Amino acid sequence: MPFTYAILHEGDKGFGISFPDFPGCVSGGQTEEDAIRRGEETLNFHVAGMVEDGDQLPFVRTLSELRSDPLFADSLGDGFLTIVLFDLPGKSVRINVSMDENLLDAIDRAAQAKGQSRSAYLADAARARIRSAA
């Protein structure tokens, strides 16, 4: 899974997070952990949108490349760096799986409650499980 560097800043009402290699992609949260989690979600949404629109993804710089950029030093200010993982969306592939019918019904109800398709709900659940195992 690829990663990029993010800058975490403390503000008056919480924390903000920005991504030097993804200009305009920003988020925030009440705590550092919340800002990082929301930042990851925002970055994944941003990258998926770029891929869907056919936009070229930016080159993700190394830490030494970032440090040599004077604009990075200005944007870092009193913030601190963290690493955020993101997904590179791929082509959807149709699969055939078998599972208990009651579990499938529960999945469908949960997906509907979130306004998602069964496939999107299962993919999100799998991503969450994979991230928690890492």
Automatic annotation (TrEMBL):
It comes from the Bacteria. Pfam families: HicB_lk_antitox. Gene3D superfamilies: 3.30.160.250, Met repressor-like. InterPro entries: Arc_rbn_hlx_hlx, HicB-like, TTHA1013/TTHA0281-like. One of its GO terms (biological process) is regulation of DNA-templated transcription. Residues 7-126 form the HicB-like antitoxin of toxin-antitoxin system domain. This is Putative RNase H-like HicB family nuclease.
